[in-house]
Structures are given as C-alpha cells and as structure tokens.
Amino acid sequence: MAENASVLIVEDEPEVRRMIAEYLGSHGYDVAEAASGAEMREALARRVPDVVLLDLNLGGEDGLSHARYLREHHDVGIIMVTGASDVVDRIVGLEVGADDYVAKPFDPRELRARLKSVLRRVRGAGERPERAPGAAAARRVRVGRFELDLDAHRLQDAAGSEVALTSMEFDLLRVFAEHPNRVLSRDQLLTLTRNREWEPFDRSIDIRIARLRRKIEGDPDAPRLIRTVRNAGYMFVPAPD
C-alpha cells in the first residue's frame, strides 16, 4: 500500500516512463513525470515528492550531477535507474547520496519493493517522537567532535551547525551509537537498520560507511571512530585513544 506516497519519475524514454507511471499509479502512488533534468527541476519547483526515480542516462545528460543536485537541495529518497553493466555509475551514485538503485531491464515488482524500502527509510528519518511533559531530555551521543541527537535525527558540530545526513547514514550512525565498542557484522548492521533488502556482502554498506566517515572522521583514511575489524565488520569507538 502506497499510503499516498508521491514519486517523480525522471526518464527520457516515453514508453518506459509511461509503463512505470501506470504501474505505480495502479498501486496507489501519486506519480509525476519528467523527461529531462530541466523538467525535473520544474517539477520539483511545483512539488517535492517523497522519492525521485532517476534515470542516470538522460539522453547524454550527466545523471550523476542530477543525483548530486537532489541530495544537496531536497530531502527526498533517490532511486537510480542504471544500465545492467553501469557498475561505476552505480557506485558513484551511492557515494553522492542515492538511497538505492535498480538496473535495466527490471521487473516492476522489484522496483516497487525497492521503492517501499526507501519510503520506509525516508519516512522513518522524518519522524519526530512525541515527548510527554516532564520527560527526560533528548538522547544525545558524542561522535568525535560532533553530537548526535537520536530523537531529533540531527548531527551537529561544536558550533551548532547541522551536518547533512541521508536517512541511511543516520540509521547507521544511530546503530553504532547504540552499540558502542562492539563489532557489528554487515549482516547485523542491515538487520539493526531494518534494511534487509541489501545483501550482506553488497558493497553498498561499505560505500555508505565510507561516505559517513568522510563527514565525521578527522582523517577518513585512518578512521578512529568507525573502525574496520578485519573479517568481522565495523566497530564504533566513541572515545578513541
């Protein structure tokens, strides 16, 4: 059930775009369409959707720059559509902030399953729990020189400036903060972040951790907060030596 979720389909092949729009529309999604990057921005100016389904090969346009624009300017889920052999674009797309990808040709049912997964993450990151009068202060965790507010879903530096995190990055950081000084395997991370759609040995989890390190580590190439434990997984060290 789509629960009135809105999706913007950015695809320059009319038949493919129409097929996706009809399929998602038949399952209750509110669908908008764009045939180019320019039309995508026009559609975003009218209404920001929950998720953007972005073809990375828009008639010669740089789809990765569109993905980067979306992540920098809008709080939306991003699912990339790539060619079956476009592994490099897929990896770079995840690095710039896409939430998931689907490779052509794809089964519409697979697309819908991935869309539902991204929607759960997007909506989960946007939830703000209610606090009763007199309730305890928000849970905050030190993450190096940053502070993670687990209830407000916010990471701030010492000056109080917010650090932009994708929903998956926040989920990962939350799980690490809740399990300090403990080795977590990729499989455990996927279970604890409720992202079981990813395969345990898929590079996507490593890519997201690498991207997270670039935001919180003093030296991402020699991480002290999120450490790699060879043949085991990752460990969060809140007070590194």
List keywords for this structure.
alpha/beta; four-stranded antiparallel β-sheet; single chain; 241 residues
Short description:
The chain has 241 residues and is of the alpha/beta class.
Could you please describe the fold and organization of this structure?
The chain has helices spanning 14-26, 37-46, 63-73, 87-96, 108-126, 167-178, 186-192, 203-216, and strands at 6-10, 30-34, 51-55, 57-58, 61-62, 77-83, 100-104, 140-143, 146-149, 154-156, 162-163, 183-184, 226-229, 233-236. With 241 residues, it is of the alpha/beta class. The strands form four sheets. It has a five-stranded parallel beta sheet with strand order 2-1-3-6-7, with helices on both faces. Helix 3 runs parallel beside helix 4 (87-96), helix 4 (87-96) runs parallel beside helix 8 and helix 5 crosses helix 6. The relative contact order is 0.10.
Outline the secondary-structure elements.
Elements: E1 6-10, H1 14-26, E2 30-34, H2 37-46, E3 51-55, E4 57-58, E5 61-62, H3 63-73, E6 77-83, H4 87-96, E7 100-104, H5 108-126, E8 140-143, E9 146-149, E10 154-156, E11 162-163, H6 167-178, E12 183-184, H7 186-192, H8 203-216, E13 226-229, E14 233-236
Parallel strand pairs: 1-2, 1-3, 3-6, 6-7
Antiparallel strand pairs: 4-5, 8-9, 9-10, 10-11, 12-14, 13-14
Helix pairs in contact: 3-4, 4-8, 5-6, 6-8
